[in-house]
Design goal:
By secondary structure, the chain is α/β, with parallel strands linked by helices. About 40% of the residues lie in helices and about 15% in strands. The protein is built from 23 helices and 17 strands. A 7-stranded parallel sheet has the order 11-12-13-14-15-16-17. A hairpin with a 2-residue loop joins strand 8 and strand 9. Helix 1 packs parallel to helix 5, helix 12 crosses helix 14 and helix 21 packs across helix 22. The longest helix has 17 residues. The chain is globular. The two termini are about 35 Å apart. The protein binds one DNA strand through helix 2, helix 4, helix 6, helix 8 and strand 6.
Amino acid sequence: MELKNDLVINLLTNVGDILEILGESVYKIRAYRKAVEALKEITEDVENLVKEKKIEDVPGIGEAIGGKIKEIVETGKLYYLDKLLKQIPLEVTSLMKIEGIGGKTAGRLYHELGIKSIKGLEEAIGNGLLLSLPGFTEAKVAKIANALKSVKSEQKPLPNIEQHAFKISDFLVNTNLLLKVDIGGSFRRKKSTVRDLDIHAVGDPANFEQVMKLFTEMTEVSEVIVTGSSKSTVKLVNDLNVDLRLLEENSYGAGLLYSTGSRAHTIKLRTICDKKNLTLNEYGLFKEKNDELIASLTETEIYKAMGMSFIPPELREDRGEIEAAMSNSLPRLITREDIMGDLHIHTNWSDGKASLKEMITAADNSSLEYIAITDHVGKIPIYRPLNKTRFNEQKKELENLVSDFEIKILHGIEVDITKEGKIDAPKEMLIEAEFVIASIHSLFDLSEEEMTQRILTAMDNEYINAIGHPTGRMFEKREGYNLNFSKIVEKGKETNTFLEINAQPNRQDIDDYIVFDIRVKLPVYIGTDAHYTKDLENITWGINIARRGWCEKKHLLNCLGYKELLRKLKH
DNA sequence: GCCGTTTTCGGCCCGACTGTTTTCAGTCG
């Protein structure tokens, strides 16, 4: 049986969109949005939650939405949505993907002009129909026509946009018109993917007009979406949206807190403030009655004034960090210095580009205590995977090299998991290899149950230490397959098999919310999957995921020293 | 529609920018 999580998320999203077009209560719409967000953050099978009558335990899901989820799980359909769709066709919701068009405008376009789709909207602009609509002036129509070219921006892998982000903040710093420039938003929270950049800067308001002019006229800007004296949004030629928020220096901490978000974190903070008769905004924390300023200079002061310890940006997702900060029980997140080893590295013995010696030299020069060399074995589409003979040759080369280095080396392999969950490698190699990663490299479109079973079967193999890039996602190439993680974690505990956080920029697999869920049940480890020596630096992306997943040293296999690690492995 | 350290009703985060609304609704973050 398939997991129904995606279906439930889709149908409830549709309900939210249609309700928005119908102009329903914003609180009702918000309730559906919140329920969808909550469902995206759980790794459990929604069907099981329904069966065990635990679905209403999920925060944001109550009796009404819980009942609808039950109906979707049991019948695959939702009568309530079907009824709504008799009033508004589903396609109308596509209009809301255009910048500046929300539910109200989409509703008017449909009701007053019969426009159902983006294509219909283009036609209505072309033949002048849109101009006939009250309130739609030439300027407004031109703006919509322009916005049509760009649907609301997509998520992009953080590593791909890091350089753009620094370039823009450098540009702002170099104007010499600002005192401090910070990149906030999901960039500062170190999310694997970001939708836009939120830049926060403080300075003398006398300079703001000039800063905004320089910002909106940067050569990389393809379009100015909004611009005002304290806030502007531009679209860059590479389709990245950048927000710039300017504040006075004495609002620095409050502005950074606001800029960093997340939205859910901010809302929770403000809700708590409300109960304490405080108001929190981007200018500061105030007493509600008399507007008296309580704190604004630093984030630490503001958190403290709200009765909390400083919350690292990576945790600001309303996953319990606020409650933990109030009870002084935030996790001691891992740092770069805590990482003792890298357990997934390739060399030119398979599809890596660096030699064994080059890789070891590079790793030895970093602060690592150990690495695992894990070249490919099995029928995978690369030029030259290892066979038994070459594995032995590699071992010999390794033995000759080790004395020259301080770093400890596990001679491992990465093996392929076949469709049936078998391990495509000779047993002698599995016995001899000191760290065996099993990964899926083909047939990605099996059902959820088949994929889960495929991995469970592989984990049952007594020589497998770890599952590499567990969901197989590759940004801008393919979605990851869904897995039943509760079953996989159970099997991991039973068989002493661990899950990888693959740190390749285009993988970043598994996601932080999965790590958050499983970390206390089964240790994880970060592997760079390096193919070049410089790829060893990709460990950063894995650390981001681990930190966002609330990992402390005890949750990560590669925070163990070499000897402790060996004791943990099953062979 | 959800929720509760003022708890089963009456609230629900807060503010900037846009357009044409002469006082605010819509959209966004």
